[in-house]
Amino acid sequence: MPNNREVRLASRPTGWPTEQNFEFADSEVPEPGDGEVLVRNVFMSVDPYMRGRMNDVKSYTPPFALHETLQGGAVGRVEASNNASFSIGDYVSSNLGWREWFISDGRGIGKIDTTLAAPEAYLSVLGGTGFTAYVGLLDLGQPTPGETIFVSAAAGAVGSIVGQIGKIVGCRVVGSAGSDAKVSWLRDELGFDAAFNYKVEGIEDALARLCPDGIDVYFENVGGDHLQAALNHMNPFGRIAACGMISQYNNATPQPGPNNLSAIVRQRLTIRGFIVSDHADRRPDFVRDMSAWLSDGRVKDRVTIVEGIDNAPAAFLGLLRGENIGKMLVKL
Ligand SMILES: NC(=O)c1ccc[n+]([C@@H]2O[C@H](COP(=O)([O-])OP(=O)(O)OC[C@H]3O[C@@H](n4cnc5c(N)ncnc54)[C@H](OP(=O)(O)O)[C@@H]3O)[C@@H](O)[C@H]2O)c1
Question: What's the 247 CA to ligand 1 centre distance in angstroms?
Answer without folding.
Answer: 8
